[in-house]
Amino acid sequence: CGVFGVYSENKEKVSNLIYFGLYALQHRGQESAGIAVSDNKEVDYYKDMGLVSEIFNDDILASLQGNIGIGHVRYSTTGESHVENAQPLVVKYKNGTIALAHNGNLVNADALREILEDEGVVFQTSTDTEVVANLLARYHKDGIVKSVKKVMELVKGAFAFAIMTDNKLIGVRDLYGLRPLCIGKLDDGYVLASESCALDTVGAEFVRDVEPGEIVIIENNELKSIKSSKWCRKNLCMFELIYFARPDSTIDGINVYLARSEAGRILAKEAPVDADVVISVPDSGTPAAIGYAEESGIPYGIGLIKNKYAGRTFIQPTQELREQGVKLKLNVLKENVEGKRVVMVDDSIVRGTTSKRLVNMLKKAGAKEVHVRVTSPPVKYPCYFGIDTPYRKYLVGATKTVEEIRDMINADSLAYISMDGLLKSTGCDKGFCLACFNGDYPMEVPLDGDNKK
Ligand code: 5GP
Ligand code: SF4
Ligand code: MG
What we know:
Elements lengths: L1 E7 L5 H11 L7 E7 L4 E7 L2 H4 L2 H6 L4 E7 L14 E5 L2 E11 L2 H10 L9 H11 L5 H11 L2 E8 L4 E5 L8 E5 L2 E5 L2 H7 L2 E5 L4 E6 L2 E6 L8 E2 H7 L5 E2 L2 E2 H15 L6 E4 L5 H11 L7 E3 L12 H11 E3 L1 H4 L3 E6 L6 H12 L4 E6 L21 H4 L2 H8 L3 E4 L2 H8 L5 E2 L1 H4 L15
Parallel strand pairs: 14-23, 17-20, 20-21, 21-22
Antiparallel strand pairs: 1-4, 1-10, 2-3, 2-4, 5-6, 6-7, 7-8, 8-12, 9-10, 9-11, 12-13, 15-16, 18-19
Helix pairs in contact: 1-7, 4-5, 5-6, 9-10, 9-16
This protein binds guanosine-5'-monophosphate, iron/sulfur cluster and magnesium ion.
């Protein structure tokens, strides 16, 4: 998911800025989107299923007036893909109204929900965000900032929150900093965004990333910060850099494009091959393919054309939709691969659906050889923190050797980048969650049995 928040003196423009911010974050979720604004007295909101551009129009944006606002784009990891689960979640409580936009996934939301339900609390959605809203309301007595602190101690998992009250915009990043969140400055206010690319879109100047465990509060156009007393290890999700984030974003000081292209260069050294052309699986594989081509001296070419109107295949909730998605999304440019030895660079193999299809399409188009190069190590463990990697049994990296995967996808050779190489590509040797590769989760996760998620 993606979150975006604005605090501005000019209430005419807040909903428009959020619209542009969400538009820039659309790659983080395409199921539903919403905007909530507050004019210091009342909260208005609008949300629906679909893309940002499908949901909002000038009239709707003009009806959303306020100095403070938050927005959300969603792809579901918990809670079904229904409009009731669209965000921001807006609730009334003792002290007014709270709107919440959440990116990430909590690992103890079910347990917390059960405790609340035992006490008679009712829920309207199946999302963990509503659990958080309830907890915030429960600890209202000492004000919202204290209740946010309290909730941070109770909830476990990955979260970047944009929270709006009647007069405050609050940003929170979990103790590990698994999900990104950054702060931008407008001439007359502040912006919070999942990724820095959205700051550029609205003309905000990048100030800094929110730190792991930090709460930032923007009120009366001033920014205050509260840091967690618990010292925390930074564990940015490596998949943000590999796949999820936009290449023109910089997260925790790491530029996504540079990290991806460097990974391609490193992979060219680790796993060279004689070939005629290097092609990418667009879009997420492109920076890495360019890096691989540069380092190997093999020319980069376009071998696959992506339909610009197709969404992200992985972000389709069912396997059937996903398979349909690959066909809709990518087609071979026969003229560039026919009779050639092709290196196909992708950022990851998760289920293997994509690579298998593409290798076969390339061969059918006349490619002599197809060598697959992947700029992340084999994905062997599920993610519990908001990236929708599947149950272990569906992860080809968990159940098959590299040679078996090569055979399954029908490639002439297959190589993954090493963990060392991947770390080197970021310029940092620590500070990441790498659990989907090595099973070393930064916190306890609900593991019960090898095949469970
Ligand atoms: P597969 O078809 O092997 O399941 O998925 C691999 C493809 O999906 C790659 O092209 C990659 O760009 C994309 N992808 C990989 N990982 C993720 C992920 O965690 N989330 C999403 N959304 N997409 C992924
Ligand atoms: Fe990211 Fe993988 Fe960690 Fe999930 S398990 S947060 S996808 S690095
Ligand atoms: Mg891809």
